[in-house]
Protein backbone atom coordinates (compact mmCIF):
# COMPACT_ATOMS: atom_id res chain seq x y z
CA UNK A 1 0.00 0.00 0.00
CA UNK A 2 1.40 3.38 -1.03
CA UNK A 3 1.32 6.45 1.13
CA UNK A 4 -1.77 7.98 -0.51
CA UNK A 5 -3.76 4.79 -0.13
CA UNK A 6 -2.78 4.69 3.55
CA UNK A 7 -4.02 8.24 4.03
CA UNK A 8 -7.32 7.55 2.28
CA UNK A 9 -7.90 4.48 4.37
CA UNK A 10 -7.21 6.51 7.53
CA UNK A 11 -9.61 9.24 6.53
CA UNK A 12 -12.38 6.84 5.54
CA UNK A 13 -11.91 4.68 8.60
CA UNK A 14 -10.93 1.58 6.59
CA UNK A 15 -7.73 0.65 8.38
CA UNK A 16 -8.28 -3.05 8.99
CA UNK A 17 -5.68 -3.18 11.72
CA UNK A 18 -7.42 -0.43 13.70
CA UNK A 19 -11.03 -1.40 13.06
CA UNK A 20 -11.64 -2.95 16.46
CA UNK A 21 -9.91 -0.24 18.42
CA UNK A 22 -11.60 2.45 16.37
CA UNK A 23 -15.05 1.06 17.03
CA UNK A 24 -14.50 0.68 20.77
CA UNK A 25 -12.14 3.50 21.71
CA UNK A 26 -11.29 6.11 19.07
CA UNK A 27 -13.85 6.23 16.25
CA UNK A 28 -12.32 9.27 14.63
CA UNK A 29 -8.65 9.51 13.76
CA UNK A 30 -6.98 12.45 12.01
CA UNK A 31 -3.53 12.46 10.44
CA UNK A 32 -1.70 15.08 8.52
CA UNK A 33 0.11 13.89 5.34
CA UNK A 34 2.42 15.95 3.19
CA UNK A 35 0.39 15.17 -0.03
CA UNK A 36 -2.87 16.71 1.31
CA UNK A 37 -3.71 20.37 1.22
CA UNK A 38 -5.07 22.38 4.08
CA UNK A 39 -8.42 22.80 2.27
CA UNK A 40 -8.86 19.03 2.00
CA UNK A 41 -8.07 18.58 5.65
CA UNK A 42 -10.53 21.32 6.64
CA UNK A 43 -13.26 19.72 4.55
CA UNK A 44 -12.60 16.33 6.11
CA UNK A 45 -12.71 17.85 9.58
CA UNK A 46 -16.04 19.59 8.93
CA UNK A 47 -17.51 16.36 7.58
CA UNK A 48 -16.52 14.54 10.71
CA UNK A 49 -18.14 17.21 12.86
CA UNK A 50 -21.37 16.77 10.98
CA UNK A 51 -21.22 13.04 11.54
CA UNK A 52 -20.77 13.64 15.25
CA UNK A 53 -23.76 15.91 15.40
CA UNK A 54 -26.02 13.39 13.74
CA UNK A 55 -24.78 10.30 15.63
CA UNK A 56 -26.50 11.19 18.99
CA UNK A 57 -23.25 11.00 20.92
CA UNK A 58 -20.20 13.17 21.19
CA UNK A 59 -17.94 10.19 21.99
CA UNK A 60 -16.51 11.95 25.05
CA UNK A 61 -16.28 15.41 23.43
CA UNK A 62 -18.11 18.56 24.32
CA UNK A 63 -20.33 20.59 22.06
CA UNK A 64 -17.35 22.53 20.90
CA UNK A 65 -15.60 19.36 19.82
CA UNK A 66 -13.19 19.40 22.78
CA UNK A 67 -12.81 16.41 25.05
CA UNK A 68 -13.62 16.92 28.73
CA UNK A 69 -10.46 17.02 30.86
CA UNK A 70 -9.62 15.20 34.09
CA UNK A 71 -9.37 18.54 35.91
CA UNK A 72 -13.09 19.19 35.47
CA UNK A 73 -13.92 15.77 36.88
CA UNK A 74 -11.66 16.33 39.92
CA UNK A 75 -13.30 19.69 40.62
CA UNK A 76 -16.71 18.07 40.54
CA UNK A 77 -15.64 15.39 43.02
CA UNK A 78 -14.15 17.95 45.42
CA UNK A 79 -17.27 20.09 45.22
CA UNK A 80 -19.47 17.09 46.00
CA UNK A 81 -17.30 16.16 49.00
CA UNK A 82 -17.45 19.68 50.43
CA UNK A 83 -21.21 19.84 50.04
CA UNK A 84 -21.56 16.50 51.88
CA UNK A 85 -19.28 17.65 54.70
CA UNK A 86 -21.28 20.85 55.17
CA UNK A 87 -24.56 18.94 55.29
CA UNK A 88 -23.28 16.39 57.83
CA UNK A 89 -21.79 19.12 60.04
CA UNK A 90 -25.11 20.90 60.01
CA UNK A 91 -26.93 17.79 61.14
CA UNK A 92 -24.42 17.23 63.97
CA UNK A 93 -24.71 20.81 65.20
CA UNK A 94 -28.51 20.67 65.15
CA UNK A 95 -28.64 17.38 67.09
CA UNK A 96 -26.24 18.74 69.72
CA UNK A 97 -28.22 21.93 70.24
CA UNK A 98 -31.49 20.06 70.58
CA UNK A 99 -30.02 17.28 72.80
CA UNK A 100 -31.34 14.73 70.33
CA UNK A 101 -29.24 11.89 71.78
CA UNK A 102 -28.80 12.99 75.47
CA UNK A 103 -32.42 13.38 76.43
CA UNK A 104 -31.97 16.97 77.73
CA UNK A 105 -29.56 15.80 80.47
CA UNK A 106 -27.10 18.39 81.70
CA UNK A 107 -23.48 17.21 81.42
CA UNK A 108 -21.63 16.95 84.73
CA UNK A 109 -18.18 18.28 85.38
CA UNK A 110 -15.45 15.83 84.54
CA UNK A 111 -13.92 15.88 88.01
CA UNK A 112 -17.27 15.32 89.73
CA UNK A 113 -18.13 12.45 87.43
CA UNK A 114 -14.77 10.77 88.04
CA UNK A 115 -15.13 11.16 91.80
CA UNK A 116 -18.67 9.82 91.91
CA UNK A 117 -17.78 6.90 89.67
CA UNK A 118 -14.85 5.91 91.87
CA UNK A 119 -16.99 6.07 95.01
CA UNK A 120 -19.82 4.06 93.53
CA UNK A 121 -17.55 1.35 92.17
CA UNK A 122 -15.68 0.99 95.46
CA UNK A 123 -18.74 1.33 97.67
CA UNK A 124 -17.10 4.18 99.58
CA UNK A 125 -18.87 7.20 101.01
CA UNK A 126 -17.24 10.09 102.82
CA UNK A 127 -18.07 10.66 106.46
CA UNK A 128 -18.52 14.36 105.92
CA UNK A 129 -18.76 16.65 102.92
CA UNK A 130 -16.40 19.04 104.69
CA UNK A 131 -14.26 17.19 107.21
CA UNK A 132 -12.38 20.27 108.45
CA UNK A 133 -15.55 22.22 109.17
CA UNK A 134 -17.21 19.21 110.82
CA UNK A 135 -14.30 18.59 113.20
CA UNK A 136 -14.03 22.27 114.08
CA UNK A 137 -17.74 22.35 114.90
CA UNK A 138 -17.44 19.24 117.06
CA UNK A 139 -14.58 20.74 119.05
CA UNK A 140 -16.38 24.06 119.50
CA UNK A 141 -19.46 22.33 120.89
CA UNK A 142 -17.68 19.69 122.99
CA UNK A 143 -14.78 21.63 124.49
CA UNK A 144 -16.76 23.44 127.26
CA UNK A 145 -17.90 20.06 128.66
CA UNK A 146 -14.32 18.75 128.99
CA UNK A 147 -12.62 19.43 132.33
CA UNK A 148 -9.15 19.20 133.83
CA UNK A 149 -8.81 17.01 136.93
CA UNK A 150 -6.08 17.45 139.55
CA UNK A 151 -5.20 14.77 142.09
CA UNK A 152 -3.73 16.04 145.37
CA UNK A 153 -2.15 13.57 147.79
CA UNK A 154 -0.28 13.51 151.05
CA UNK A 155 3.51 13.92 150.52
CA UNK A 156 4.26 10.50 152.03
CA UNK A 157 1.65 8.71 149.96
CA UNK A 158 2.67 6.57 147.00
CA UNK A 159 1.85 7.89 143.56
CA UNK A 160 -0.42 4.89 143.13
CA UNK A 161 -1.74 3.20 140.05
CA UNK A 162 -1.64 5.39 137.01
CA UNK A 163 0.86 7.95 138.23
CA UNK A 164 3.91 5.71 138.61
CA UNK A 165 5.46 3.84 135.70
CA UNK A 166 3.55 0.86 134.34
CA UNK A 167 5.31 -2.32 133.28
CA UNK A 168 5.22 -3.85 129.84
CA UNK A 169 5.46 -0.52 128.07
CA UNK A 170 1.89 0.49 128.97
CA UNK A 171 1.11 3.82 130.57
CA UNK A 172 -1.96 5.57 131.82
CA UNK A 173 -2.70 8.98 130.39
CA UNK A 174 -2.58 10.93 133.64
CA UNK A 175 0.36 13.28 134.00
CA UNK A 176 2.77 13.18 136.92
CA UNK A 177 4.21 16.64 137.64
CA UNK A 178 8.00 16.85 137.64
CA UNK A 179 8.13 19.06 140.73
CA UNK A 180 4.81 18.76 142.55
CA UNK A 181 6.07 20.48 145.71
CA UNK A 182 6.80 23.64 143.76
CA UNK A 183 3.51 23.72 141.89
CA UNK A 184 1.44 26.86 142.29
CA UNK A 185 -1.76 24.76 142.29
CA UNK A 186 -0.75 23.13 145.60
CA UNK A 187 -0.89 26.55 147.24
CA UNK A 188 -4.63 26.78 146.53
CA UNK A 189 -5.48 23.56 148.42
CA UNK A 190 -7.06 23.54 151.86
CA UNK A 191 -3.97 21.99 153.40
CA UNK A 192 -0.43 23.07 152.73
CA UNK A 193 0.63 19.47 153.29
CA UNK A 194 -1.06 18.24 150.11
CA UNK A 195 0.79 18.17 146.85
CA UNK A 196 -0.26 17.80 143.25
CA UNK A 197 0.36 14.16 142.32
CA UNK A 198 -1.00 14.14 138.79
CA UNK A 199 -3.51 15.54 136.35
CA UNK A 200 -5.99 14.02 133.97
CA UNK A 201 -9.19 14.75 132.06
CA UNK A 202 -12.91 14.16 132.44
CA UNK A 203 -16.19 15.36 130.99
CA UNK A 204 -19.71 16.27 132.14
CA UNK A 205 -22.33 13.70 131.23
CA UNK A 206 -25.07 15.30 133.36
CA UNK A 207 -25.71 19.04 133.63
CA UNK A 208 -26.09 18.84 137.41
CA UNK A 209 -22.32 18.38 137.68
CA UNK A 210 -21.59 14.66 137.22
CA UNK A 211 -18.21 13.94 135.63
CA UNK A 212 -16.88 10.70 134.16
CA UNK A 213 -13.16 9.94 134.20
CA UNK A 214 -10.65 7.10 134.73
CA UNK A 215 -10.25 5.55 138.15
CA UNK A 216 -6.46 5.78 137.96
CA UNK A 217 -6.76 9.59 137.58
CA UNK A 218 -8.29 9.99 141.07
CA UNK A 219 -6.94 6.88 142.80
CA UNK A 220 -5.46 7.57 146.21
CA UNK A 221 -6.40 11.26 146.12
CA UNK A 222 -6.79 13.18 149.36
CA UNK A 223 -8.49 15.91 147.40
CA UNK A 224 -9.69 16.22 143.79
CA UNK A 225 -10.04 19.55 142.06
CA UNK A 226 -11.77 20.21 138.76
CA UNK A 227 -11.03 23.14 136.48
CA UNK A 228 -14.02 24.06 134.31
CA UNK A 229 -13.80 26.22 131.20
CA UNK A 230 -15.21 29.70 131.90
CA UNK A 231 -14.55 29.59 135.65
CA UNK A 232 -11.59 31.33 137.27
CA UNK A 233 -11.36 29.07 140.30
CA UNK A 234 -11.32 25.25 140.38
CA UNK A 235 -14.10 23.24 142.00
CA UNK A 236 -13.44 20.75 144.78
CA UNK A 237 -15.03 17.50 143.60
CA UNK A 238 -16.61 14.60 145.44
CA UNK A 239 -15.60 11.13 144.30
CA UNK A 240 -19.01 9.49 143.91
CA UNK A 241 -17.80 6.04 142.96
CA UNK A 242 -14.85 4.08 141.59
CA UNK A 243 -14.47 0.82 139.69
CA UNK A 244 -10.84 -0.28 139.37
CA UNK A 245 -11.64 -3.24 137.13
CA UNK A 246 -13.28 -1.02 134.53
CA UNK A 247 -10.92 1.89 135.34
CA UNK A 248 -13.89 4.25 135.71
CA UNK A 249 -14.79 6.87 138.31
CA UNK A 250 -17.63 9.35 138.72
CA UNK A 251 -17.11 12.78 140.29
CA UNK A 252 -19.62 15.43 141.34
CA UNK A 253 -19.26 19.20 141.62
CA UNK A 254 -21.89 21.79 142.49
CA UNK A 255 -22.32 25.03 140.59
CA UNK A 256 -24.76 27.93 140.42
CA UNK A 257 -25.94 26.96 136.94
CA UNK A 258 -26.18 23.95 134.68
CA UNK A 259 -22.97 22.64 133.16
CA UNK A 260 -22.53 21.78 129.46
CA UNK A 261 -22.64 18.05 128.75
CA UNK A 262 -21.58 15.49 126.18
CA UNK A 263 -23.93 12.83 124.85
CA UNK A 264 -22.80 9.26 125.35
CA UNK A 265 -23.09 7.41 122.05
CA UNK A 266 -23.00 3.76 121.04
CA UNK A 267 -19.50 2.54 120.25
CA UNK A 268 -20.97 -0.56 118.60
CA UNK A 269 -22.21 1.67 115.76
CA UNK A 270 -18.71 2.85 114.89
CA UNK A 271 -16.60 1.28 112.18
CA UNK A 272 -12.87 0.94 111.67
CA UNK A 273 -11.72 3.94 109.67
CA UNK A 274 -14.28 6.36 111.15
CA UNK A 275 -12.98 9.76 112.20
CA UNK A 276 -12.46 10.15 115.95
CA UNK A 277 -11.55 13.19 118.04
CA UNK A 278 -9.78 13.27 121.40
CA UNK A 279 -9.94 16.28 123.72
CA UNK A 280 -7.84 16.45 126.87
CA UNK A 281 -5.05 18.10 128.82
CA UNK A 282 -1.79 16.42 127.72
CA UNK A 283 1.19 17.61 129.74
CA UNK A 284 -0.93 20.40 131.18
CA UNK A 285 -1.90 21.93 127.81
CA UNK A 286 -5.58 22.50 128.49
CA UNK A 287 -8.24 21.53 125.96
CA UNK A 288 -5.94 20.08 123.34
CA UNK A 289 -7.68 18.42 120.41
CA UNK A 290 -6.18 15.62 118.34
CA UNK A 291 -7.77 13.84 115.39
CA UNK A 292 -7.36 10.35 113.96
CA UNK A 293 -9.34 7.31 112.94
CA UNK A 294 -10.65 4.28 114.73
CA UNK A 295 -7.81 1.83 114.13
CA UNK A 296 -9.34 -1.34 115.60
CA UNK A 297 -11.98 -2.68 117.96
CA UNK A 298 -12.14 -5.44 120.57
CA UNK A 299 -8.48 -5.05 121.59
CA UNK A 300 -7.39 -6.84 124.83
CA UNK A 301 -4.38 -5.53 126.76
CA UNK A 302 -2.72 -6.34 130.07
CA UNK A 303 -1.23 -3.59 132.25
CA UNK A 304 1.27 -4.51 134.95
CA UNK A 305 1.58 -2.33 138.05
CA UNK A 306 4.77 -1.51 139.93
CA UNK A 307 3.74 -3.89 142.70
CA UNK A 308 3.41 -6.79 140.25
CA UNK A 309 -0.36 -6.84 139.99
CA UNK A 310 -1.93 -7.02 136.55
CA UNK A 311 -5.11 -5.54 135.14
CA UNK A 312 -6.85 -7.07 132.17
CA UNK A 313 -8.75 -4.84 129.80
CA UNK A 314 -10.87 -6.23 126.99
CA UNK A 315 -12.98 -4.89 124.14
CA UNK A 316 -10.94 -1.68 123.93
CA UNK A 317 -11.04 0.72 121.02
CA UNK A 318 -7.70 1.42 119.34
CA UNK A 319 -7.02 4.80 117.75
CA UNK A 320 -4.14 6.65 116.12
CA UNK A 321 -5.35 10.02 117.45
CA UNK A 322 -2.40 11.43 119.37
CA UNK A 323 -2.75 10.59 123.09
CA UNK A 324 -0.31 11.66 125.81
CA UNK A 325 -0.07 11.71 129.63
CA UNK A 326 -2.84 14.02 130.84
CA UNK A 327 -5.42 12.70 128.36
CA UNK A 328 -6.59 9.97 130.75
CA UNK A 329 -10.34 10.05 131.31
CA UNK A 330 -10.97 12.36 128.38
CA UNK A 331 -13.62 11.68 125.75
CA UNK A 332 -13.05 9.98 122.41
CA UNK A 333 -15.71 11.48 120.13
CA UNK A 334 -17.21 10.42 116.83
CA UNK A 335 -17.94 12.84 113.97
CA UNK A 336 -21.33 13.63 115.54
CA UNK A 337 -19.72 14.80 118.78
CA UNK A 338 -20.91 11.77 120.76
CA UNK A 339 -18.66 10.05 123.28
CA UNK A 340 -17.78 6.56 122.06
CA UNK A 341 -14.87 5.91 124.41
CA UNK A 342 -12.92 7.07 127.47
CA UNK A 343 -9.19 7.36 126.78
CA UNK A 344 -7.32 5.13 129.21
CA UNK A 345 -3.94 3.74 128.05
CA UNK A 346 -1.16 4.13 125.54
CA UNK A 347 1.81 2.04 124.55
CA UNK A 348 4.81 4.17 125.52
CA UNK A 349 7.07 2.27 123.11
CA UNK A 350 4.97 3.01 120.04
CA UNK A 351 3.44 5.90 118.15
CA UNK A 352 -0.20 6.19 117.21
CA UNK A 353 -1.34 3.25 119.38
CA UNK A 354 -3.79 4.46 122.01
CA UNK A 355 -6.74 2.77 123.68
CA UNK A 356 -10.13 3.84 124.96
CA UNK A 357 -12.82 2.07 126.96
CA UNK A 358 -15.85 1.73 124.66
CA UNK A 359 -19.12 3.20 125.85
CA UNK A 360 -20.89 -0.07 125.07
CA UNK A 361 -19.14 -1.69 128.06
CA UNK A 362 -19.56 1.09 130.63
CA UNK A 363 -23.34 1.59 130.75
CA UNK A 364 -23.98 -0.94 133.51
CA UNK A 365 -20.93 0.17 135.49
CA UNK A 366 -21.99 3.79 135.16
CA UNK A 367 -25.41 2.99 136.64
CA UNK A 368 -23.76 1.22 139.56
CA UNK A 369 -21.44 4.13 140.23
CA UNK A 370 -24.30 6.60 140.19
CA UNK A 371 -26.30 4.35 142.54
CA UNK A 372 -23.61 4.69 145.22
CA UNK A 373 -24.44 8.37 145.64
CA UNK A 374 -27.97 7.68 146.92
From TrEMBL:
Residues that span the membrane, as ranges: 76-94
Low complexity biased stretches: 8-18, 172-192
Bias kind Gly residues: ranges: 161-171
Transmembrane helix among keywords: yes
One Pfam family linked to the record: Trypsin_2
Keywords associated with the record: Hydrolase, Membrane, Protease, Serine protease, Transmembrane, Transmembrane helix
InterPro entries per record: Chloro_Bact_Ser_Proteases, Peptidase_S1_PA, Peptidase_S1C
Disordered: annotated span: 1-34, 157-193
Protein name: Trypsin-like serine protease
Organism name: Paenibacillus glycanilyticus
Lineage: Bacteria, Bacillati, Bacillota, Bacilli, Bacillales
Amino acid sequence: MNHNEFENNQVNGNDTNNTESTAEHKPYTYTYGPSRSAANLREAYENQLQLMGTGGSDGGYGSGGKKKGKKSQAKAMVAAFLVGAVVISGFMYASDKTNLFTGNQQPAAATTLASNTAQQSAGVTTASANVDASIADVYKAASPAVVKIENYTEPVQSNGRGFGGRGGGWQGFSQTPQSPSGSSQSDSTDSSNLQLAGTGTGFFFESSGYILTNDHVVEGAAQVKVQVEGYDEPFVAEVVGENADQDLAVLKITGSKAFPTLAIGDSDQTAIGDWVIAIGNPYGFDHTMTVGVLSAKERPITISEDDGTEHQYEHLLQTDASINPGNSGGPLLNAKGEVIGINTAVNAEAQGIGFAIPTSTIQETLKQLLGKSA
